[in-house]
Amino acid sequence: MPITWFMITELGHFALILAFAVAIVQMIVPLVGASYNRRDWMAVAEPAATAQFLLTGFAFAALTYAFVVSDFSLQLVTLNSHTAKPMLYKITGVWGNHEGSMLLWVLILTLFGAMAAWFGGGLPPTLRARVLAVQSAVAVAFFAFIIFTSNPFIRMAVPPFDGQDLNPLLQDPGLAFHPPFLYLGYVGLSMSFSFAVAALIEGRVDAAWGRWVRPWTLAAWVFLTIGIALGSWWAYYELGWGGFWFWDPVENASFMPWLIAAALLHSAIVVEKREALKSWTILLAILAFGFSLIGAFIVRSGVLTSVHAFANDPERGVYLLIITAIFMGGALVLFAIRASAMEAKGVFSLVSRESALVINNVLLAVSCFIVFIGTMWPLVADLLFDRKLSVGPPFFNQAFTPFMVLLAIAIPFGSLLPWKRGRMEKIMPLLLPALIISFVLLILAVVIEAGLSIRIPIYVAIIAMILFLWQRETLEQLSKFIIPAFILGVSLIALVFTIQTGQSVLGPLGLALGAWVVFAAITELWQRSGKSGARLRRLAGLPRADWGKAVAHAGFGITIFGVAGLMAWQQEDIRVAQIGDRFDVGIHEIELRNVQRAEGPNYITTMAEMIVYRNGRQVEVLRPEKRFYPVANMPTTEAAIKNGILRDVYLVIGDPQANGGWAVRTYIKPFANWIWAGSIIMALGGGLSLSDRRHRIGAGARKTRVPNAVPAE
Amino acid sequence: MMARLLLILCLIAAPVFAVQPDEVLSDPVLEERARALSDDLRCLVCRNENIDESNADLARDLRILVRERLVAGDSDEQVMDFVVNRYGEYVLLRPTMTGSNMILWVSGPIMLLFALIIAFVYLRGRQTETSEASLNEDEKKRLAELLKD
């Protein structure tokens, strides 16, 4: 009966409003309870958080149901769906639009709140009440935003027979699951924010706080990493020329919280282990969520033009700006009042793990600042200086990349330095193998790229090996001079190579840098597992956090190498090919065998059949497509890619030409997959670290809990 | 030139895609220069895409324009000046280092310097306990110098 699904939508709408009401209660009552130390008032937070989550979940399910059954009496469904659309994209279409994605956003927000309530048993009761209240305050703002400006449950007076379909670019598995991961990341940072504000209200930040805030930050960072990698991977195969990062405002909007979250999870370690950097960590926790909010503003206001932008609605933009201003302003004022009360305890020397983590924070925070100013500059220049200008990839590549290079150079030192007080003379010998390996790889890459005999690097490698094994002691004593010598050597090679061949040294340098980070991570695990036998058992017995750290750092190195390799060594071939033509691109031969038209479920396609040969042997049949989605009146390119460890062969079919041929584009993309493999390895490292028993929420809380915590007021 | 553009636009039905085979110059040196210039030129109707990557008609116009100027013997700067004169500063993906744009370019390095100074001051402040031990390094030398006077 139609009555049933009609009612589900109405019930969903009602549940959403009810969740809003519960959120208001949860924002106020536990907060008041915490300041008067009334347990019964504080106890409201837990069931309220659960109720909020269940109600929002019901609203989300109701909206999903409307999409699944194609209920075109809902305006949102009409605008973003179509009966002929595949079921997967009917479901993912729920968040493929502004209103639905906001509902997903608050669903995740309430999920995090509920998880803090369920697993936060080990937290001091006042801190827990305050965390949940702050989290709920964020929820209140977003519930109000949805209900008053972006209500997904608005009906149409006259329902049409069919919908207007989802943007075809979004009808893709990569992009379908890109937003949920990003939101898990963005919204996950709201937990770090709530913990920071609650700690400021509480007036106390100690090692235990550092331990509690870390898993949430880590989880948010892992999700952000996966979300960003998915988006980049989607851009690579979907946009038709194999770009993987555009420095687009919307990409930057997800990248800034990622950078700050990365800084935060490093500085929280210092708080946990050494009770230092407290106020800085609190500030980072506030800023990380602040950048999430700014990201939401950038994506949804349309102030900064971008193809990703959902809606160019100034009213929503203003509302989001107000939300950002209230939460950031409030938190920062609180910070200004309370930060001075947080004195640091830890004492350490200039050369120490603590200092290294401070350098990490400086590099990450400043690089985030550069992304921020580059993203906002067109707006600032327009408003203040009346200049209409663009800030694009050339700026970011130039201004941002040095920070990642410095970071990669510094990681191995930082991760090997001991806490409190370290000596460079002690860690340099440990890094010698990694240094030698990356140096040999650099020479190898330069030699191959210059087309010289491969014998030279083999000799260098053999000499280096012999020197290393035979004169290890001497080398280790000399290690103080090895770094300057190494830098000098690398610059000389780079200079000579560039002058001689006119080619970029980007590739070889990226390879050396990536190898340096990866092998240093391996060195660290080796080092940690001790000097004598039973190494394997000890390796397996290392804390998961240690594994996580090494794995995440290695992933970063791999991504650096992938980016450098792809940018330095990619090849491109553009031509008109007749059916049956065979042509060479690099070491491959490509044949255009056939082009035909076909029909998909909701699109028309022009599909080419192309054969990739190597050494005269067929290695792959690829079918690049050009699709046209008639309902949305939009063409898309579906590149066909032969994925490989060393290189991707990336084929794009273009337009028919006047002489009967087809425009065909072939790209060779070396090491492309290393970029995303590295990102996934980074996320994996985060996950490993998250699973460390030390980070389980509440673990060890009983030991550090101070009895009768007195409210700060 | 307009006539040629119109002709091309008529011949090619939308949508067109990035660099077309018929646009590529036969002189590889000139083509490479065109590519390098394209990296810094924005497709005016797209997001942060340069004209080589863009599928828009307008980007195609610009690609052809750049190549025409290069064939006519313009230097790289002359081509860029010509394009900026015609389409405005908005077309540049790498903002010029002039006037108010200097804020954009220098704020990163200045911020880094600033952050490093703060970090250094903080880190020095954190080593109070070890400051006695570190007297044997620099401070000892200074102490010796002071005692000499």
UniProtKB/TrEMBL annotation, chain A:
GO MF terms listed in the record are: lyase activity
InterPro entries referenced in this protein's UniProt entry, alphabetically: CcmF_C (IPR032523), Cyt_c_assembly (IPR002541), Cyt_c_biogenesis (IPR003567), Cyt_c_biogenesis_CcmF (IPR003568)
Alphabetized, the UniProt keywords read: Cell inner membrane, Cell membrane, Cytochrome c-type biogenesis, Lyase, Membrane, Transmembrane, Transmembrane helix
Give yes or no: UniProt keyword Transmembrane.
Answer: yes
Q: Does the keyword Disulfide bond apply?
A: no
Query: Where does the Cytochrome c-type biogenesis protein CcmF C-terminal domain start and stop, copy by copy?
Result: 455-693
Q: Tell me where in this chain the Cytochrome c assembly protein domain is found.
A: 95-301
Report the domain of life of the source organism. Answer: Bacteria
Tell me the Pfam families matching this sequence: CcmF_C, Cytochrom_C_asm
**Where found?**
Cell inner membrane
Q: Please list every transmembrane segment annotated in the UniProt record, as residue ranges.
A: 12-36, 48-68, 102-120, 132-154, 181-201, 213-235, 255-271, 280-298, 318-337, 358-379, 399-418, 430-448, 454-470, 482-499, 505-526, 547-569
Provide the membrane topology annotation: Multi-pass membrane protein
Q: What does this protein do?
A: Required for the biogenesis of c-type cytochromes. Possible subunit of a heme lyase.
Family, as annotated: Belongs to the CcmF/CycK/Ccl1/NrfE/CcsA family.
The record's annotation in PANTHER family points to: CYTOCHROME C ASSEMBLY PROTEIN-RELATED, CYTOCHROME C-TYPE BIOGENESIS PROTEIN CCMF
Return the protein name.
Heme lyase CcmF/NrfE family subunit
Species name:
Parasulfitobacter algicola
- Taxonomic lineage from the root: Bacteria, Pseudomonadati, Pseudomonadota, Alphaproteobacteria, Rhodobacterales
